[in-house]
Specification:
- The protein is an alpha/beta fold and about 240 residues long.
- It has helices spanning about 15-30, 60-70, 95-120, 140-160, 190-205, 210-220, 225-230; strands at about 10, 35-40, 50-55, 75, 125-130, 165-170, 205-210.
- It has one domain (about 10-230): NAD(P)-binding Rossmann-like Domain (Rossmann fold), CATH 3.40.50.720.
- About 40% of the residues lie in helices and about 15% in strands.
- Helix 1 (about 15-30) crosses helix 5 (about 190-205), helix 2 (about 60-70) runs parallel beside helix 3 (about 95-120) and helix 3 runs parallel beside helix 4 (about 140-160).
- The radius of gyration is 17 Å and the shape is globular.
- The protein binds NADP nicotinamide-adenine-dinucleotide phosphate (NAP).
């Protein structure tokens, strides 16, 4: 169980739709400091926010962030990229690698680099942002990378238990951010998703299913694949 009050929190991808909301809600829950990290950091209107450059695909940038943010005890691993219409057969090999560089290798490297920092600060917590598509392979390389990150999160949870680090996986469907501005479908309010994630983190949960799609897709994993993928003829559940 981790408390955000008085903690130093770091958010990756802090300029994005969910990222900005993670920063705001961490402040509202009484964080002492929030490192709002981004490839291009921006100014914030709260003196507790420390804008910090962090490109999760750049090892030197991760190392510099670890040195600059040695007091972090809660890290929200949120940065990600998505290509609408991505398929595992049709997307170029170069783009598949790019998606994995950010959504898998980058995310994993951030946790690996900050794990000793969290240990030194009492254990702390990682909140890893996944998707319903970690469990549903309808978005090509994005689904594959989110599945791989989900698996890595499970490994982090097991391996870091001994140092007292809580590792939370957050699963969500379509949410109203720039990432899926092209999608015309029902979308979650980012504020609801972030609230669910932080509530789960503060309650000591290992996993948060932040919307009905996440609940439905996880439940369907124990059923026949034909039902999960709507085969034949029934459209699968959607959501990035
Ligand atoms: N929105 C949804 O429907 C949905 C559903 C399920 C899961 N998710 C996940 O939620 C997370 C947040 O996404 P979002 O919806 O808030 O999308 P977003 O508004 O596009 O934000 C994504 C952020 O990630 C940052 N980013 C991308 N590559 C990066 C890199 N190499 N290093 C550091 N930052 C990088 C982007 O930074 P720049 O500003 O520099 O481009 C952007 O600020 C992602 O992991 C996404 O996969 C979203």
């Amino acid at each position: 169980m981790s408390s955000i009050k008085n903690a130093a929190v770091l958010v990756t991808g802090a300029n994005g739709g969910l990222g900005q909301e993670f920063v705001r809600q961490a402040l509202a829950r009484g964080a002492a400091k929030v490192y709002a990290t981004a490839r291009t950091p921006r100014a914030w209107d709260d003196e507790r926010v420390v804008p910090l450059r962090l490109d999760v695909t750049d090892d030197a940038s991760i190392t510099a962030a670890v040195q600059a943010a040695g007091d972090v005890s809660i890290l929200v691993n949120n940065a990600g990229i998505y290509t609408h219409g991505d398929t595992i057969t049709g997307t170029s090999a170069a783009r598949i690698r790019e998606i994995f560089e950010t959504n898998f290798f980058g995310a994993v490297q951030v946790n690996r680099a900050f794990a000793p920092v969290l240990a030194a600060n009492g254990g702390g917590a990682f909140l890893d942002v996944h998707s319903v598509l970690s469990w549903l392979g309808v978005a090509g390389a994005y689904s594959a990378a989110k599945a791989a990150f989900w698996s890595a999160t499970n490994s982090f949870r097991v391996e870091l238990a001994a140092q007292g680090t809580q590792v939370v996986g957050l699963h969500l469907g379509y949410t109203d951010t720039p990432m899926i501005s092209m999608v015309d479908d029902e979308k979650n309010d980012p504020a609801d998703i972030v609230r669910a994630g932080f509530d789960g983190l503060e309650a000591g949960d290992h996993e948060v299913l932040a919307d009905e799609r996440a609940v439905a897709v996880k439940a369907a994993l124990s059923g026949p694949l034909a039902d999960l993928y709507g085969l034949p003829g029934v459209p699968p559940p959607a959501g990035a």
